[in-house]
Specification:
2 domains; 0% strand; globular; Mpv17_PMP22; Mitochondrial inner membrane protein Mpv17
């Protein structure tokens, strides 16, 4: 599931946020993002579904994305210094209100769908952040 959510997030990032158009869609990038979703996001989030884990998760996600995109260690560190805090702050603006609303107002049988819908939006942001 996380592979699909991260992949959809990257497609939205490329087509809606970056406005690349279908002819300029980077399929290799989408495949890389789906791999990150399958091998990293799914196992980590599945085992550590806590907001307190976000600082480690975001740093690792951005670092892995940079490595898969061919950044040198120095370039990757510079990218982390530039993008990490913004991603972390955005995480805390988005997820706590979503989860509070989800647990207080959404019936139990719809909670997973709410999280998955918001995850597509979040993954679009992360894809844009990791690949800009």
């Amino acid at each position: 599931m996380s592979r699909s959510l991260v992949g959809v997030g990257d497609v939205i990032s490329q087509q809606v946020i970056e406005r690349r158009g279908l002819s300029n869609h980077n399929l290799q990038r989408t495949t890389k993002m789906m791999s990150i979703g399958f091998f990293f996001v799914g196992p980590v989030v599945g085992g550590w579904y806590k907001l307190g884990f976000a600082p480690c998760f975001l740093g690792a996600f951005l670092g892995i994305s940079g490595a898969l995109n061919g950044l040198t260690v120095e370039e990757n560190i510079a990218k982390l210094k530039r993008d990490y805090m913004d991603a972390l702050i955005s995480n805390y603006y988005l997820w706590p209100p979503v989860q509070i609303a989800n647990f207080y107002f959404i019936p139990l049988h719809h909670r997973l769908a709410v999280v998955q819908i918001v995850a597509v939006v979040w993954n679009s942001y992360l894809s844009w952040k990791a690949n800009k």
